[in-house]
Amino acid sequence: MKKFLAMVLSLVMVLSMFGCANAEGFSGEIKIWVAENTVEFTKAKVEEFKAAHPEYAEMTVTVDPVGEGDAASNMLTDVEAGADIFGFAQDQLGRLVSAGALVDVLPENAEIVKAQNDAGAVSAVMMGETMYAYPMTSDNGYFLYYDKSVVTDPTNLEAVLADCEKAGKNFYMEINSGWYQTAFFFGAGCTLTYSTDDAGNIVAMDCNYASENGVKALKSMIKLAQSPAFVNGSSASNATNLGAIVDGTWDAGVVKEALGENYAAVKLPTVDGYQLGGFGGFKMLGVKPQIDEAKLAACDALALYLTSGEVQLARYDAVGWGPSNLEAQKSDAVQADVALSALADQLQYCIGQGQYPGDYWTLATALGDDVLADKYDAYTDEQLLEVMTNFQTTAGSYVTK
Asked: What's the predicted TM-score (pTM) here?
């Protein structure tokens, strides 16, 4: 594997030095992996690209249904056998770069990406000063859906809970999930991120959960769990007697059907004087290194087109994926999308989900389970600080020595 990647990169450098890029285009084969529900859409857009670029009219493009999660895993298993262009989620970027599965974006394309996409999406495709992928969406995160006949003030969690309690309705949030749980800790001013080396090993952690802010966040979680309206969960499909739920765009249709004319959504509320934050997520297209410089140029051109504002907006119309392109976000259709508008507001208070060790998710679940079991209800601030200190110490133990 490493020998193959070294050969690819060496040959690409040599070909570039001698100006061997084929200005006449490319007529070979390109393989693309995208989510199953976008396969036909992608095929159609590839044909549009070929029609608009005669130099690529003769190339053969295969589009296979391989979702973001599987694509990254498959590329990491065998880069050489993997797709030339593939979709993946931003939390896989570091691992893919370390495995040599991504070639950096051409400087001229990187400038286009930076100018045309929102800051969060641009940040998500960068490692240091280098851009490694093309942003495709800005639509993965969570926010507040609510019944506007029940909730009178969705901007404040205490008020939301009071309204739900008064109406005998349920408020859903999954506080024993390491993904949703960060809404409290990041919102309160805490940090928990990991860094990786070139081999993908986790080599450092930046965390300050063992702090006054960490205690504040934990106390907010404890108070939420004590509300008679609270139900631990994040799946709208499983929700009953729904007053409000912290969920994502993937459940918009389910929530809308449940709430009917009372359907509404906004960014997460404040709690105990701070704005709830959390993770944000983005989908992107990556291009793997190529020996053939002409093929690499074709892949770059096609990836840039498939993530352009025009195609992002068309993809939204086709399958509902929220665009990262700034002009596409301004379209009437996207602006009228209640869930996407709520998410766009929330993403201002989120960080992109990077690479986290599997044990982190288990640790976060255990913390949430203890809250749900009322373990900390009578704890003093000093005792809660000890809980957070132990949490931080354990989280740090996952760093490779």
From this structure: 0.82
